[in-house]
């Protein structure tokens, strides 16, 4: 028993010593989308054939950086090998860092997965050690400027995102990483036709700046409303201390993430003092008109009356007042027309409602006088406008056989009783056919007649005709599918022609390939460049019922273009990427 116990403890100690520890450590479990994450995969054995996870939802900034550490303490040896990555999150939410793999003594070991929570951008990011040059953070600033921080409810304001760049820094490109959400606002982006650098100042120092995006906001709630920051990734060229053989300064390409700070609007409620009873929420500066198509017409003829409200303000966010007419005038539901455009000054243009009116009786009519109330934020007071009246003269109906004049409603809308139209019985029912053209029914039976046998055999005679039509339809479908395939191939060649011409230049090839994919989406989905984010692309394609596999293939291709520009690639690999892009565009075109 003594020897058995001794052998048992020796085997147990040997097994404990032979166990392999393979763990995953992250620098923080909760971070903003503009912060960086350091991930360490640590194994306590000298293992080989390390395989990293996919890092879905992250962009790899650097890694793997491999390090080894061996210690002897109190006669006991310890060993640790570490694979380090620096990652940049590309979207918000709970993201999982998958399992890494490593091989030790012919056996494969996997690290446990790790979950981190990515939130909106923070104002003062505390990132891990960055792989970029430190001076870039002081040379580039993303700023969100607002036209008014304390607007009234439903008052139009704008927020513009400006990128300030030091004059010694050259920007290659930028891409949105996290879009701001405008919760509790009605919002609309203003298209910027061309991104152009202008001269300006930031912090009292001269800078160049470019307006990346401008958005018009109309607050729909009162109180403090937050606008989450815009986060972008910027590829910049920064000067280094190295020079080439000709003495020219060399530049280094740096990938950096920037975020604008969270902006807070203190929205004031509209004052209750002096608020009109007919106020419906219009805020801005407006004018009102009431126009008519005719001044004189016969009874039972129609005319149109158009109520038009024009100006600058929240034109799409309220309903105009209703026109009221006398009971002797038949009025139909109005036809609404909006001619509103949105620019840096907010909504401007007009909205109108067109009424169709049919007077029933002879007379002179005056009505209208519509009141419209709105709040003017410039003068901080309510204003009421009154539209002009409509005056029409209605003549007797010349088509009526007997009618007497009836002057019904005057400017005071007081009824002056008179005789009304009297319809004779002949004219009242003249639309009814009183004479018939009936024929007596014949005595011949339908059964066993020629028509009976024709109807009976006709379905059987149509069978060959149906086979012929089916064959023609199949041939037509095959021809249509062939044309559709040819059309898709032409579409792919159209968008990818520039990339094919630059196969010899890797940087230009992948830039052209990425631009071709973006232009294809802009053409098919009718979206602007400012909306070209991965989340917006996925959401729009899902709404168009495109399959998840095709969507993921398209997104992977975009990500591959971004990464391939900064890594060496062979001509064969570029040709393979070109074929993948052509196939993806063709399949996506058919799916859409």
From TrEMBL:
The chain crosses the membrane at residues 451-469. Residues 395-420 are annotated as: Disordered. Pfam families: BatD (PF13584). Keywords: Membrane, Signal, Transmembrane, Transmembrane helix. It comes from the Bacteria. The keyword Transmembrane applies. This is Oxygen tolerance. It comes from Psychroflexus planctonicus.
